[in-house]
Amino acid sequence: MGLMSGTSADGIDAVLVSYEGRNGTLLRTHHEEMPGALRKEILSLRHPGEDELHRMAVLDQKLALAYVNTVNSLLAQADMSAKEISAIGSHGQTIRHDPEGATPFTWQIGDPNRLAEMTGISVVADFRRRDLAAGGQGAPLVPAFHQSQLAEPGVATAIVNIGGIANITLISADGEVRGWDTGPGNTLMDGWIHRHQNLPFDDGGAWAATGQVLESLLTEALIHPYFTARTPKSTGPETFHLEWLSTLLTGQEKPEDVQRTLLEIVVESIGRALDDVSSSVIRISGGGARNHLLMNRLAARLAPTDITSTDAIGIDPQWVEAWAFAWLAKQTLAGTPGNVPAVTGARGPRVLGAIYPA
To answer: Which domains are present in the chain?
Structure first.
């Protein structure tokens, strides 16, 4: 089983995957909305504040309980018992990610001890810190899964995951893998529409479609040094957040024009990352694949390369990341590395995560 609650913190994705060989089969999926109070606390802990340690410790336990509920719901839907599940791969909720600081760190919460205790299923968690300890960024970790499960041998493929943060995986025809975070995905758009319309996301890009691109804002945003930083690199909402956006605004902009421009920032940052890449196909996963305007703009920006969502290869874009952490858990249990040093910058392949037995 794989569990994923991403940058947007809007919910928990869970998948049940069967492996009887190299390629897995997605058996069942479930999405649980993140309780509003938990989401509010997750977002608030991304920035310095009062009594952080106590709030984080409490949230750690509350998130674990939310994960337990999600696991139990998925088991009930699949009519399966805990004894039939070899392990849960739990990404946890990232609350801080600072791989470039004087003392690099990354921190995910959602207590795996409680998750294992209350479900009766072994849990594999804390995937990112071993890569970080080996000199890597701890992210992105999905490229190894992309290469193993989504790539077609002999076909140069780019896989673009547009979650809260966007990242790309480049798989050459001979199997070489590269990848990095390109910058904001949905995080700024989600935050902006929540502020102005109290909605969790812009369904299909409908609100952005009513606005116009503010060229000056687009230019100013893309000056951010992250976009031209050398790889390996990774980022998060600690860097791209509404407070940063506010420094670029005059206050006179129409909200829908800002939303439209935020979408274009995503398109252009991904486009620039892929401009010098020779890929036969580009597959989009994550929530961004359901944003019709975003997909249309990416298709125009990256033409003539064939762009589709991972639906084209039989995998719903929503479940790719949760599946990746089920796969990473399988790697850990087998004692097999789960990182790609060329992607994260780690000193070498590492077995990721810690095992919390049932």
So the answer is: 2-138+320-356 (3.30.420.40), 142-317 (3.30.420.40)
Report the alpha-carbon distance of residue 328 to residue 276 in Å, rounded: 30
Average pLDDT, the chain: 95
* Chain position carrying tokens 């116009």: 212
| Four-residue CA torsion sign, 252, 255, 256, 262 | positive
Sheet holding 11-19, edge to edge: 24-33, 11-19, 2-4, 88-90, 123-125, 354-356
Taking every pair of C-alpha atoms in the chain, what is the biggest distance, in angstroms? 58
Find residue 94's DSSP bridge partners.
Answer: 108
**DSSP for residue 258:** H
b vs e for 293-324, b when ≥16 Cβ sit within 10 Å of the residue's Cβ? bbbebbbebbeebebebbeeeebbbbbbbbbb
Q: Is the pLDDT of residue 151 over 90?
A: no
70-85 confidence digits (pLDDT tens): 999 999 999 999 999 9
User: CB of 70 within 8 A of CB of 78?
Assistant: no
pTM of the predicted structure, to 2 decimals: 0.93
